[in-house]
Amino acid sequence: MSEPEKQQGDLPRVEKDRVVRVYHVMRDDDGQVLADTQVDGFEYIHGHGNLIPGLEAALEGHVEGDEIEVTVEPEQAYGLHDPEAVVDVPKERIDAKADLVPGNMVEAHGPEGRIEMLILEVGDETVKVDLNHPLAGFRLHFNARVGLVRDAHPDEVKHGRVHPGGHHLMTSDSSIHDLPKDDS
């Protein structure tokens, strides 16, 4: 649904640099529930890539209380499954504490940070892993409700994430430090 379902006076709309609380159920094509945040919901900053693109686009322009149903194709979710992302990794590159059992997720540290991998096979010297996101290749179906929408604090926008209530007032990395210094 591309247009908001209701016109609700002066309620803020979901748009870039707004913090949005969302409550949703995510299912696969078979109807299996993959995620359910209906009770507590979650918050994100809209327009900063904190949600899969297809869901973020579907929420654009809605207001608190709007409910949407949207199907998101893999290309607008976690991408297509890339067979080239199934690789053999030397055992010594995986954390020694990892439980090397097919079906387990393990972590390794690469040049760009933490990498999660699904173990497919365990050999004598290597482990065959899948580096794709576990939901790569899935078409996802969402039933979502928009909760509170508010303007993001400048620090939240700067950091690209929602801060817990009052955090921006207690941290040394506040927007006030971006002001020119008085050299008198």
Overview of this structure, please?
Mean pLDDT is 86; it is low at 1-7 and 168-182. It contains 3 helices and 9 strands. 9% of the residues lie in helices and 34% in strands. It is mainly β.
Query: Shape from CA axes?
Result: elongated
Order of helices and strands: EEEHEEEEEEHH
Q: Regions with pLDDT < 50 over 5+ consecutive residues? A: 1-7, 168-182
Distance between the termini: 57 Å
Question: Got a strand count?
Answer: 9
The helix content is: under 10%
Given the helix and strand composition, which structural class is it?
Answer: mainly beta
Main beta sheet strand tally, sense and closure: 5 strands, antiparallel
Count of DSSP-assigned helices: 3
Instruction: Evaluate the radius of gyration.
Output: 21 Å
β-sheet strand percentage: 25-35%
Overall average residue pLDDT: 86
Key features?
elongated; 184 residues; four-stranded antiparallel β-sheet; 9 strands
